[in-house]
Design brief:
By secondary structure, the chain is α+β, with helices and mostly antiparallel strands. It is about 40% helix and about 25% strand. It is globular and about 80 Å long.
Amino acid sequence: MPNSLSIAKERISQISDIATSYVQKDKSLFDHFIHSYYQPLHQETAEAISNADLAGMALHHFTLLKAYDGSKPQLTVLNPAAEEQHFHSSHTVIQIAAYDRPFLVDTILMSLEAEGIDVHRTYNIIISVERDDNGDITHIEGAHESATSHMSLIHCEIAYQDNEGLEALQQMLMSKIDTLDTVVGDWKQMRAQLNDIKTELSTKPLPEVFYSQQEIQAFLDWILDDHFIFLGYREYRLEGGQSIEVTSEPTDLDLFAIGNSGLGLLRGSEKDKLSESFSQLPRGLKQLLTEPRVLMLSKSSRVSPVHRSVYMDFLGIHKFDDNGNLIGEYRFIGLLTSQAYQLTVQQIPLLREKANKIMAMADLPRDGHAHHKMMHVINTLPRDDLFQASVEELYPIVSGITQLQDKKSLRLFSRIDHYQRFVSCLVYIPRDKFNTELRIKVQNVLKDAYNGMSSGFTTEFNESAHARVHVHVRTVPGQVNDVNIATLEAKLSALMQSWMIIIKDATRQCG
């Protein structure tokens, strides 16, 4: 069935007539390429571009495709001129011909955004290419699925860049693709490592203070079931502590990255190397590694260089010897997939166990109003907090949110990260008092209160009487201020009231 939203075949033929007039050989192959190249192009997009420019764009991309030799991607950044490239654009153009790999388009776009470069239009197709023994193209066909055996062609138009900066931009993008290739190349090995670790844990008696052994196994199965994008792995050796119990007087611990164990973004030295980030932690924070968690999911201090520009998720798994002593850690970094945020808590191992423990602590009549309300609160909490926080941390937060009744009051709930890399703050502001200016003031007060370096936020509105602002304050381990929550909450409430008075006065004066 023809797609009425795509460019008409008759127009593609007109474009091909123009384009093939520019070449002396391979006219039939080039004509077939153009029909494959533009078949998915949206009609609305095509209407804004002349046939001559579309012909030149395809010709330039075909030239890159022919030059691709199977090694490095063909990537060019140019300010096209009709006299040279047979097409013109008021934007700077990026064209890429590379074997198809996961997250290629995402990585290119997020890299441009990180540089503050506006993207005006992106066009990507995946094609199947056959070559002869000399490497010359003999056949081109549109692909029906993404696969590394196919070619990915990306045409991206960005805000105009001066000619002097084009080479640096090209090198930056090539570097990002190299990083992506390191991750994609090690992906199977990282999955295999986690599978081996899962098998190893199943043979050892594990402490079940935080999670049951059954739920740990189920969670690792869940992670392996395409719920985690593996970006890096490394094994660590722990020295200085022989027990998983936290002592009243902590011993000094050292953590060593094991040589040649790194994969993906954590590839590194061939020799064992002291973890500098761990060695800089205060002694008390170091000792937290020995808590009998078995595994811990948190946020890395590094932003992902591929796919999504967010702080990476960190999965640490304890390593035990045959006598049950803690001797190291297996560490993965990556990104939880979208399903991890969309599934209900009861569909995710560990989270369902946490939820059940919270509900047991609340001891509410099953299936009653209060029971359903608390389960709703658990399911709508920021998912990262559910993954990262302990039951003891979550229960007062969940209970407090469940008790929100005063539609006029502001409430604050906060949690400091295990290693003090950030503070997660949930601020509930009455909807009729919420505005952007107040949110900015609240965010700044929280950053200063916890001695943060920076902060980010998300705002959520639902059917309740409050807007929920989730402020994520980035902090330096060992330098987080000791905060009295009640005092800080009172300060935010006073700020809200004073801001409302200012708004009322301004409204009265305008009236």
